[in-house]
Design a protein that fits this description.
The protein is α/β, with parallel strands linked by helices. The chain is built from 16 helices and 13 strands. The chain binds 4'-deoxy-4'-aminopyridoxal-5'-phosphate (PMP).
Length: 399
């Protein structure tokens, strides 16, 4: 049968990084992968993480429990909802540590496939992170799109989004980006979230919040949890939150994440957790320890938490400064258009609205690497390269 195995195309973003690494030009700029870079273009280890590393020295290499570190899981729930939330006080969350955000989505997908049935459709935004489709189709679901982006106005297509969600069969599963939508950087306003929440409630949809960028919109986890709190706290809905600490703690390679399934009662949560444990056992047996210990050390210390908040502001402020600087430079070089959409976008990415040919020209002629849909990781910009990038974008769009 091996002779019948087809060749699967490599993941475009990881492939782009490999191509960037092979490029020998001194001018090259990597705006592809969503990984934070400091003002010198270097990976950044958060100060709070450096403190946590010292605190957990000598913690050894024993297995964690199947569901992961309990203090980590509880810390994640408190982070999402706050210590005083009834969801926390009534222990209504079934949780499991996961292999970062991806593993968290996968665990929820197999949980739903096994215990909610794949006859329910999964709705994901158009566009979205390309792994969403792969994860839910891989678990056996029929995956459909709901409208999200109006490419004409470079804005949220809210009317169509509402229409599409209203058309979902009752009980469907809907994937929502908690904040910093990838790739567009466009999130619903609070008022729009309220309308989405009403549809989710009226149609008994099962919401899954993909929370990979908490803290990247505003620099504050509390603010960026607004939609999650509104759904589960104010509307009293049940659903799931898939948390990742890749970006907001810079723990990309440590694979730190958590699944939170918000239920109606303590007993439901206990049963859900028992199933998560059963599923996790046959998938990874038990999750990795190091990164979860770092995150737990941060959650458990007032001082480190304070530092983490500063670190989040450091990252989000630098990204916002670069966002503005890019647009200032585009305008300075008279790039056609207002580029106001780039300023209005949130989170780690900018969605430029270039054609695939323009993206290709930037890569081949100017050594500037970005996703084919012209999503750029703003953190790849710095004082030394932003003018060059703006000049080159101007040149390809003015051709
Ligand atoms: N969801 C979204 C929307 C993402 O952009 C990412 C990372 N690119 C993830 C989830 C998961 O990332 P990780 O597995 O590294 O936590």
């Amino acid at each position: 049968f091996l002779s019948q195995i087809p060749y699967a195309q490599p993941d475009p973003i990881f492939e782009l990084t490999a191509e960037y690494n092979r490029d020998g030009s001194t001018k090259k700029v990597n705006l592809g992968q969503g990984a934070y870079r400091d003002e010198n273009g270097m990976p950044w280890v958060l100060k709070s993480v450096i403190q946590a590393k010292r605190a957990i020295e000598g913690s050894g290499h024993e297995y964690l429990p199947i569901l992961g570190l309990e203090d980590f899981r509880k810390g994640c729930t408190k982070l999402l909802f706050g210590e005083e939330s009834p969801i926390v006080l009534e222990n209504r969350v079934g949780s499991s540590q996961s292999i970062s955000g991806t593993g968290s989505l996968h665990l929820v997908a197999i949980f739903l496939a096994n215990y909610y049935s794949t006859t329910h459709k999964v709705f994901i935004p158009d566009p979205t992170w390309n792994n969403h489709r792969a994860i839910f189709e891989g678990a056996g679901f029929d995956v459909q799109l709901y409208s999200y982006f109006d490419s004409h106005h470079m804005a949220l297509y809210f009317e169509r989004l509402q229409e599409d969600l209203l058309r979902c069969p009752e009980g469907s599963i809907v994937v929502l980006h908690a904040c910093a939508h990838n790739p567009t950087g466009i999130d619903p306003s609070f008022e729009q979230w309220k309308k989405i929440g009403k549809i989710v409630k009226d149609k008994h949809l099962f919401p899954i919040f993909d929370a990979a960028y908490l803290g990247f919109n505003s620099g504050s986890i509390d603010t960026d949890c607004w939609a999650i709190r509104y759904f589960f706290h104010d509307l009293n809905l049940t659903g799931a939150v898939c948390m990742s600490f890749s970006k907001n703690m810079g723990l990309y390679g440590e694979r730190v994440g958590c699944v939170q399934i918000i239920t109606n009662t303590f007993d439901e949560a206990k049963n859900v957790e028992s199933i998560l444990s059963k599923l996790q056992r046959s998938e990874v047996s038990n999750p990795p320890a190091y990164g979860a210990r770092l995150a737990t050390a941060i959650f458990s210390s007032k001082e480190y938490m304070q530092q983490w908040k500063i670190d989040l502001r450091t990252m989000s402020c630098r990204i916002n400064t670069m966002r503005k600087l890019l647009v200032d430079n585009l305008r300075k070089h008279n790039a056609p258009g207002s580029w106001v959409h780039v300023i209005d976008q949130n989170g780690m990415f900018g969605f430029l609205g270039l054609t695939e040919t323009e993206v290709k020209d930037l890569r081949l002629d100017h050594h500037i690497y970005m996703a084919a849909n012209s999503r750029i990781s703003i953190a790849g910009l710095n004082e030394a390269n932003v003018e060059y990038v703006a000049q080159c974008i101007t040149s390809v769009v003015s051709k």
